[in-house]
UniProtKB/TrEMBL annotation:
Protein purpose: The coatomer is a cytosolic protein complex that binds to dilysine motifs and reversibly associates with Golgi non-clathrin-coated vesicles, which further mediate biosynthetic protein transport from the ER, via the Golgi up to the trans Golgi network. Coatomer complex is required for budding from Golgi membranes, and is essential for the retrograde Golgi-to-ER transport of dilysine-tagged proteins.
CDD domains listed in its UniProt record: Coatomer_WDAD_alpha, WD40
Domain COPA/B TPR: 586-740
Ranges where the COPA/B second beta-propeller domain occurs: 313-557
Any one GO molecular-function label of the UniProt entry: structural molecule activity
WD repeat start-end pairs: 47-88, 89-130, 131-164, 200-241
Naturally occurring in which organism (per UniProt): Actinidia rufa
Cellular localization per UniProt: Cytoplasm; Golgi apparatus membrane; Cytoplasmic vesicle, COPI-coated vesicle membrane
Protein name per the record: Coatomer subunit alpha
Domain Coatomer alpha subunit C-terminal positions: 788-1191
Length: 1191
């Protein structure tokens, strides 16, 4: 049983297949009717109007209708296109068991537990006949597929066949009124239109189902006595033929196969009217399945193919399309299903064919085809047989057989003798051909290529479960087909792309261009080498592709017939040419073929070829968008004119501004009458003449604010005063005039203002506010003459409306008259620049060439020869290189270099991995310093953005310009040594806070230091240890000074400080300090210990030595401690960096992955209190501070 589709739902009581579409209706015990697409596996719709279980459901053969009958005594007719119930037929008095449409007349037959069968006319929506006669529930009723008969089965142990010929005659020639009157009585007495033809008695229990054979005069019935009976009928009688059980083969009268589900009962079985499909409904859903596989076994070799069909091996030649029968092959003898040929393997040199099937759990037969035999002989040649999962030819006269039980492969010769054995590298359940001497082994989730000679795996790949494999003609690529995916890989199984399909993949073949053509249940599709795919055409029935030659697809259908389908390959050849950068081919295809459609435009846009898409498009809006995307201002202007909408002009202005094409920006602003933007444009381009015209326009429009702005931009003070005066702002006008020293105006205005003259603030120095003079005046940005992109020159004459080129128009002024009529009727003709179609400056169009850097341009040398006579030599646009920051990060695992490149994210990840650092707050300013310090900035000229330049470490003039050095770093080791000296000095002088700050700054900088040699690496690591000891010691000493009221803790901290690894002068000071503290606290014994240690260091300072001796003398008189300290100097210990308690040798501890300070186990997972960076106990790979560590 081959399950095609399964659902999980409430109990399924009724099923009906659609005759044309891949749909099935399932009616549920819950009252819901589901409409499923069993090919896609999706629920299309659900209909929920019945009250209680729906036991019967049926699709109409040609109308978009279906009928349902339920336990609510209602029959409902639905239209699935309108998603609703059209009407309800009432009349039955008990549960309705089945409903069915007549294949020709507008009738529905229904059976019910009220012991009647009713026939309804669904067009007039009336009951036209009631069939009475059964005396128990009627379990089913159905029309005969051709004749005027109805068969019904009932729990009264009978099957009845009814003749409805009279009903048909009445429908065809409507009867007179008397007959119509009799219709009224039908409901009460049962009509005369249908009479019982036969009553079939023979079952011992109630009959559940009965059905006509679609073509033969047979009836099949099934009953509670667990028997299936076959009845034969003729015009006069019907009689019992045979008893048998389950799914069976009527010719042999034997059960073929039984299917069971654990814990589920089956309720309904339905068969598809057209194709080989069955469906069964059970307690928890339904399954759609096939009994037998329909894929023919075939093997293609060069121009020919061998395939198995109806007990014969056949031969087909693609070039001549000749199909011949070769030899008969053995028919499977066993009674079970799916025993036909599964796969076929062919050896052309020996003319031998291997046929594998599932007989005996997997076996093969070897036939040698006689050379002359294109035979009709019916004598079955005695084949050589053997057991094995799959068998394939691996060489001229050797074939491999898979022995699944031992996971071995047996290599045999044509006499069927084992030549060699070998175990496989993966637990394979099938083997396929992979070139001479190689096998492709398939496991559940992977495939591998195995070399039988050398016994090595040449490649393996994880894939979904692979069903079929197809090698390309040159054996360089392989397509691995699974149920819903296609994986394309190289001959060594290096993955190239994966395609996912929702509908099941059926077959495939490679065409001569290296495109994989494949079929799903309902489409022929293509897959390009880069993974792009698309539909070539739809299919009405599934086919199996055998070969693709140019635009012909050769295939076998499910009947085993050869078919040739002609396809249109233009689309995928076009895309392939784009992928392979065969631009001349693309050009000729655009010129000669009818490629168009939204999908193609979207594809070209997505792949970065908007300028090619331009030539397919007629719609102006789309053309405009594509032109902007490809930077083709010329076409954008033409389209904007056609569309003539404000928004499009605005977007054109933005793009033109981006390209520095001031002329078109001006034109676009003029079209939208956007005076503010125009004024500002004239200001930044320094076009004072036009600015003064803008002032006049504002005046004409009586736009006071616009006038004032323009006067401000022009730096025209008198004009500003005049505007303020005219608009009634006399005080402002007065102040403006007096500040700018226009005394004549000041006097006049002062007289007008009289007593209201505003006073100027005292002691303020005024500064002149004038617009800056532009550095660059006027025109468009300078343009280089570049090589035209292959698509531009070549396509100009195809696309529509591309203006002719006119070199001389390069200086043409852009713009259009502003139709601004002033009061005196003066037309503002000054801002004149009417754009004629032919006057588009050619240079602007060439801007588009910049977007095509990835084209394979001809070598530079040739281009220069060609252009010596032209006005100037052609500039070949350089391809953009990789940003330096990217080069720095690609090559480096050093956090400092990532930070310098501005890649803080990866720098933090590296530090976290190498040193377990989690707290990056102290490192933030260092990161920023590194980044800014490794770049410098150049100002080109005022209107251009600042250029950032990378500063490299170890750069020299003799180095190649293409080789990038690592970034220059602002921190280096010698700086740290200086800092260390300063910190030592601060410690000596007792400035502990300052010293601690310096030591912490060193420990925070070390992760971002880079040194060159291994020796320096060791020095850096040594520095970490030194600094860590000081940080810990100083933290304890500062803590001690805070504790005024806890003398015991003060003594402990002073004692621990002496166990930090300090420089000798500092150790002496620490010892002296501890001795003093303990002596004052009357702990003479401990003080004596410090005095002894101090004397052992041979102190150079006489005071220290003298004091130590005095303490020793005092202690010898009284060798005891007043208070007990947590301090045992005889037992070696380290101090916990967080709790400042001793961790004696042998006790458990955890350490910081960066500074290696030690902590009590409870501190694990906390932030290290010494370095304030890393997490205590974290895993880390260690400090990486030199490229030499990586090499």
């Amino acid at each position: 049983m081959l399950t095609k589709f399964e659902t999980k739902s409430n109990r399924v009581k009724g099923l009906s297949f659609h005759s044309k579409r891949p749909w099935i209706l399932a009616s549920l015990h819950s009252g819901v009717i589901q409409l499923w697409d069993y090919r896609m596996g999706t629920l299309i719709d659900r209909f929920d109007e019945h009250d209680g279980p729906v036991r019967g459901v049926h699709f109409h053969k040609s109308q978009p209708l279906f009928v349902s009958g339920g336990d609510d005594y209602k029959i409902k007719v639905w239209n699935y296109k309108l998603h609703r119930c059209l009407f309800t037929l009432l009349g039955h008095l008990d549960y309705i068991r089945t409903v069915q449409f007549h294949h020709e007349y507008p009738w529905i037959v229904s059976s019910s537990d009220d012991q009647t069968i009713r026939i309804w006319n669904w067009q007039s929506r009336t009951c036209i006949s009631v069939l009475t006669g059964h005396n128990h529930y009627v379990m089913c009723a159905s029309f005969h597929p051709k004749e005027d008969l109805v068969v019904s089965a009932s729990l009264d142990q009978t099957v009845r066949v009814w003749d409805i010929g009279a009903l048909r005659k009445k429908t065809v020639s409507p009867a007179d009124d008397i007959l119509r009157l009799s219709q009224m009585n039908t409901d009460l007495f049962g009509g005369v239109d249908a009479v019982v033809k036969y009553v079939l008695e023979g079952h011992d229990r109630g009959v559940n189902w009965a059905s006509f054979h679609p073509t033969l005069p047979l009836i099949v019935s099934g009953a509670d006595d667990r028997q299936v009976k076959l009845w034969r009928m003729n015009d006069t009688k019907a009689w019992e033929r045979t008893k048998s059980i389950r799914v069976w083969d009527a010719t042999k009268r034997t059960g073929v196969q039984t299917f069971r589900r654990e814990h589920d009962r089956f309720w309904i079985l339905a068969s598809h009217p057209e194709v080989n499909l069955l469906a069964a409904g059970h307690d928890s859903g339904m399954i759609v399945f096939k009994l037998e596989r329909e894929r023919p076994a075939f093997s293609v070799s060069g121009d020919s193919m061998f395939y198995a069909k109806d007990r014969f091996l056949r031969f087909y030649e693609f070039s001549s399309q000749k199909d011949t029968q070769v030899i008969p092959i053995r028919r499977p003898g066993s009674a079970s299903l799916n025993q036909g040929p599964r796969t076929l393997s062919y050896s052309p040199t020996e003319n031998a064919v291997l046929i594998c099937s599932d007989v005996d759990g997997g076996s093969y037969e070897l036939y040698v085809v006689p050379k002359d035999s294109v035979g009709r002989s019916d004598t079955v040649q005695e084949a050589k047989r053997g057991i094995g999962g799959s068998a394939i030819f691996v060489a001229r006269n050797r074939f491999a057989v898979l022995d699944k039980s031992s996971n071995q492969v047996l290599v045999k010769n044509l006499k069927n003798e084992i030549v060699k054995k070998g175990s496989l590298p993966i637990a394979a359940d099938a083997i396929f051909y992979a070139g001479t001497g190689n096998l492709l082994c398939r496991a559940e989730d992977r495939v591998a290529i195995f070399d039988l000679q050398q016994r090595i795996v040449l490649g393996d790949l994880q894939t979904p479960f692979v069903k079929y494999i197809v090698w390309s003609n040159d054996m360089e690529s392989v397509a691995l087909l699974s149920k819903h995916a296609i994986v394309i890989a190289s001959k060594k199984l290096v993955h190239q792309c994966t395609l996912h399909e929702t509908i099941r993949v059926k077959s495939g073949a490679w065409d001569d261009n290296g495109v994989f053509i494949y079929t799903t249940l309902n489409h022929i599709k293509y897959c390009l080498p880069n993974g792009d795919s698309g539909i070539i055409r739809t299919l009405d029935v599934p086919i199996y592709i055998t070969k693709v030659l140019e635009n012909k697809v050769f295939c076998l259908d499910r009947e085993g017939k050869n078919r040739v389908i002609v396809i249109d390959a233009t689309e995928y050849i076009f895309k392939l040419s784009l992928v392979r950068k065969k631009y001349d081919h693309v050009m000729s295809m655009i010129r000669n073929s009818q490629l168009c459609g939204q999908a193609m435009i979207a594809y070209l846009q997505q792949k970065g070829f908007p300028e090619v898409a331009l030539h397919f498009v007629k719609d102006e809006r789309t053309r405009f968008n594509l032109a902007l995307e490809s930077g083709n201002i010329q076409i954008a202007v033409a389209s904007a004119k056609e569309i003539d909408e404000k928004d499009h002009w605005y977007r054109l202005g933005v793009e033109a501004l981006r390209q520095g094409n001031a002329g078109i920006v001006e034109y676009a602003y003029q079209k939208t009458k956007n005076f503010e933007r125009l004024s500002f444009l004239y200001l930044i381009t320094g076009n004072m003449e036009k600015l003064s015209k803008m002032l006049k326009i504002a005046e004409v429009k009586n736009d006071v604010m616009g006038q004032f702005h323009n006067a401000l931009y022009l730096g025209d003070v008198r004009e500003r005063v005049k505007i303020l005066e005219n608009s009634g702002h006399l005080p402002l006008a007065y102040i403006t005039a007096s500040v700018h020293g226009l005394h004549d105006v000041v006097e006049r205005l002062g007289a007008e203002l009289g007593d209201n003259v505003p006073t100027l603030p005292e002691g303020k120095v005024s500064s002149l506010l004038m617009p800056p003079a532009p550095v660059l005046c006027g025109g468009d940005w300078p343009l280089l003459r570049v090589m035209r992109g292959i698509f531009e020159g070549g396509l100009d004459n195809i696309g529509r409306g591309a203006p002719e080129e006119d070199d001389e128009a390069a200086d043409a002024d852009w713009g259009e008259e502003l139709d601004m009529v002033d009061v005196d009727g003066l037309q503002n003709g000054d801002i004149e620049a009417v754009l004629e179609d032919g006057e588009v400056p050619e240079d602007n169009e060439e801007e588009a060439g910049w977007d095509l850097e990835d084209l394979e341009l001809p070598p530079e040398v040739d281009t220069q020869k060609a252009s010596i006579n032209s006005r100037s030599s052609v500039f070949v646009a350089p391809t953009p290189g990789m940003p330096v920051s990217q080069i720095w990060t690609q090559r480096s695992s050093l956090a400092a270099e990532h930070a310098a490149a501005g890649n803080f994210d990866t720098a933090m990840r590296l530090l976290s991995r190498q040193l377990g650092i989690k707290n990056f707050a102290p490192l933030k300013p260092l990161f920023l310093d590194l980044h800014t310090g490794s770049h410098t900035y150049l100002c080109a000229f005022s209107s251009a953005s600042v250029l950032s330049l990378a500063i490299e470490r170890g750069w020299s003039e003799s180095a190649s310009p293409n080789v990038r050095c690592p970034p220059a770093l602002v921190f280096n080791f010698s700086q740290l040594e200086e800092k260390l000296k300063a910190a030592y000095k601060a410690t000596t002088t007792g400035k502990f806070t300052e010293a601690l700050r310096l030591f912490l700054s060193i420990i925070h900088t070390i992760p971002l230091i880079v040194v060159e040699s291994r020796r320096e690496v060791d020095e850096v690591k040594e520095l970490v240890i030194i600094v860590k000891e000081y940080v810990l010691g100083l933290q304890m000493e500062l803590k001690r000074k805070e504790m005024k009221d806890n003398p015991i803790r003060q003594q402990e901290l002073a004692a621990y400080f002496t166990h930090c690894n300090l420089q000798m002068p500092h150790l002496r000071l620490a010892l002296q300090n501890a001795m003093t503290v303990c002596y004052k606290a009357k702990n003479l014994n401990t003080a004596a210990n410090f005095a002894r240690r101090l004397l052992e260091t041979n102190p150079t300072n006489e005071n220290q030595a003298k004091m130590s001796r005095q303490v020793l003398q005092a202690a010898e008189r009284n060798m005891k401690d007043v208070s007990q300290l947590n301090y045992d100097f005889r037992n070696p210990f380290v101090v916990c960096g967080a709790t400042y308690v001793p961790i004696y040798r042998g006790q458990k501890d955890v350490s910081c992955p960066y500074c290696s300070s030690r902590f009590v186990p409870s501190q694990e997972g906390q932030l290290c209190t010494v370095c304030d960076l890393a997490v205590v106990g974290a895993d880390a790979s260690g400090l990486l501070c030199s490229p030499s560590q990586i090499r």
